[in-house]
């Protein structure tokens, strides 16, 4: 008999290039670097891949996106690594501390500082 591993909500699953990607897995790897205060991963529409993986992070002082990319490179398959990074001062959370992904997607659409992979 096998094991069932739940990686995140089905509705949050990103399908990129035919691969199933779970944001919770990538968020955990990014947060484990101890280079960020907070992190979220989303899928955004992409003409080539269907959806592209993006990361939205609140950096710790003296941290950089390049340092995070280096830290996660060996821990995530290439297709799971964010294609685009967004820097924000805080992630939108509700009163219970749960990430508000709808508001986060709106924030991304408002031209926050973006760093290409």
Record the SSE blueprint:
Layout (H helix, E strand, L loop, with lengths): L13 E3 L2 E3 L1 H10 L3 E11 L3 E10 L5 H8 L11 E4 L13 H8 L5 E3 L1
Parallel strand pairs: 4-5
Antiparallel strand pairs: 1-2, 3-4, 5-6
Describe what this molecule looks like in 3D.
The chain is α+β, with helices and mostly antiparallel strands. The chain has a 4-stranded mixed beta sheet with strand order 3-4-5-6. The protein has a two-stranded antiparallel sheet with strand order 1-2. The protein has a single domain (10-116), classed as ANL, C-terminal domain (GMP Synthetase, Chain A, domain 3, 2-Layer Sandwich), CATH 3.30.300.30. The mean pLDDT is 87. It has helices spanning 23-32, 65-72, 101-108; strands at residues 14-16, 19-21, 36-46, 50-59, 84-87, 114-116. The chain contains 3 helices and 6 strands.
What labels describe this entry?
alpha+beta; two-stranded antiparallel sheet; single chain; 29% strand; 6 strands; four-stranded mixed β-sheet; 117 residues; GMP Synthetase, Chain A, domain 3
């Amino acid at each position: 008999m096998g094991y069932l591993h739940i990686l995140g909500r089905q509705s949050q699953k990103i399908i990129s290039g035919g691969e199933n990607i779970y944001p919770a897995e990538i968020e955990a790897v990014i947060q484990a670097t101890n280079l960020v205060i907070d992190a979220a991963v989303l899928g955004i529409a992409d003409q080539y891949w269907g959806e592209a993986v993006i990361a939205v992070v609140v950096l710790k002082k003296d941290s950089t996106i390049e340092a995070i990319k280096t830290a996660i490179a060996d821990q995530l398959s290439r297709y799971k690594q964010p294609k685009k990074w967004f820097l924000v001062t805080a992630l939108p959370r509700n009163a219970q501390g749960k990430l508000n992904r709808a508001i986060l997607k709106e924030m991304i659409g408002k031209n926050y500082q973006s760093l290409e992979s």
